[in-house]
């Protein structure tokens, strides 16, 4: 049995599940009565989503459908960043929603500090966009996972991988 246990904290987006959720959103919009005759378009770009629709009310409805489908597909809705709305041609409205993935240096430092303050016996190490947490007690590592899930110090979707 290993004397040192570890896991990695990452923030990733399952792009296949995201594509499946977007397909489900498009299908639901086609069959919904309140969207009959309303041109609505959802595009997935490199690290953002673009929603174009008739008005603010329809945009909120599409965003609500999107969040519901993301949760059903097992994706965290924290992957959706702050939307920027702008007028589009033909009296429509366009919303750019950035997709949040990866742990930047500032958020990594916040997570690292939180872990060190609560659990002085474990050793968190920042490795690019990944934080490796290692310690002797499996119970402490599981407590760290629970802590980060419950009171996320950052507005990022966190996953725990490589648990050894």
Main attributes?
24% strand, four-stranded antiparallel sheet, Alpha-Beta Plaits, 2 domains, 164 residues, elongated, alpha+beta
Could you characterize the architecture of this molecule?
It is a single chain. By secondary structure, the protein is of the alpha+beta class. It folds into 2 domains: 5-12 and 102-161, Alpha-Beta Plaits (2-Layer Sandwich), CATH 3.30.70.860; 15-98, 2-Layer Sandwich (Alpha-Beta Plaits), CATH 3.30.70. Helix content is 37%, strand content 24%. The protein contains 4 helices and 8 strands, in the order βαββαββαββαβ. A 4-stranded antiparallel sheet has the order 6-7-1-8, with helices on one face. The protein has a 4-stranded antiparallel sheet with strand order 2-3-5-4, with helices on one face. β4 (84-87) and β5 form a beta hairpin. α1 packs across α2 (56-72). The protein is elongated and about 65 Å long. The N and C termini lie close together (10 Å). The model has no long low-confidence stretch (mean pLDDT 88).
